[in-house]
Amino acid sequence: MSTAENLDNKIKKYWPKNGPAVQEIEKYIKKYLKEKIVIKCGGRVLLDPGLFTNFVNDVTTLKKLGLTPVIVHGGGPRIKKKLEELNIDSKFIMGLRVTDEKIIKVVEEVMIKFNKEIITALEKKGCKAKSVTVKENISIYAEQKNKVLGYVGKPTKIDSKLINNLIKENFIPVVSPMGIDEKKQTYNINADTAAGALAKSLKSRRLMLMTDVEGVYDKNKKLISEIKSNEAEKMIYDETISEGMIPKIRTCIDVVNNGVRAVVIIDGRKPHSILFELFSDKGSGTLIRK
What is the pLDDT of residues 200-255, one digit of tens each? Predict the structure, then answer.
């Protein structure tokens, strides 16, 4: 069987009925075949079982079509829920959770539990997946971001060799956004920041940030389909972009200025938003380039 026939059979077998038009797919598969795609899942995808299943199905489709997805998961909504159950208050500064000793323990527990859920879900779909957490396959090394935020870290080094070895062994790496320092202290890292550091280190072609908004809006609340990094910087400065979107956009700017060809912010609440972004001319969400 020729490679083209083999690819055609795979598309017929794995492509969802309500995904992008089939005639557009093949050229995009060829475009991304030898590239790494880092996908950060966050927002309601972490809480809503239906959205979570959609996300897992899309990642499975990528893998079965021969692409190389690397997952970084957030945990904000789940952490918030757990802290509320335990009656632990937390506050935010510039979109980042202030993290003390009590909170960092909760964060670690929630992150590891969710990481295992993703692994299990992917394995049920016939994909090999491997946890990358502060407990196993550590790949993110960090330092304290600042004293006011407590145990919130920023990545200092990514063990890309470890991630690449997992990819060579045909695993989907599932990365928890936490790191350790030289004293083995654990730090919570903003998931967008962790995904950005990973995308740069792996020299991935595309970073996808799944969230609860369609993308970046202008002052009139209209979706912007594509934006340059210097324009995004201005939008932070004039407060068009604010609060929790600030660390997200800062990551996008940093990543596209450091070797990743494009970053896209997509709406995880929409069916097959990953597939529409990668495999259709129209795309999905807001694309940010240098």
Answer: 999 999 999 998 888 899 888 899 999 999 999 999 999 898 877 887 898 899 99
Contacts of 88 (CB under 8 A, 6+ apart): 102, 103, 106
How far apart (Å, rounded) are the C-alpha atoms in residues 104 and 189? 11
* Predicted structure pTM score: 0.93
The answer to whether residues 97 and 75 touch, using CB atoms and an 8 Å cutoff, is no
Taking only the tens place, the pLDDT of each residue in 45-71 is 888 999 999 999 999 999 999 999 999
The answer to whether residues 114 and 73 touch, using CB atoms and an 8 Å cutoff, is: yes
CB 266 within 8 A of CB 249: no
Which tokens go with 113? 């539990």
Q: Which domains does the chain have, with CATH numbers?
A: 22-289 (3.40.1160.10)
pLDDT band at 154 (very low <50, low <70, confident <90, very high): very high
| 11/24 Cα distance (integer angstroms) | 11
- C-alpha span between 261 and 109 (Å, rounded): 34
**Short-list 156, 42, 154, 152, CA closest to 107:** 152
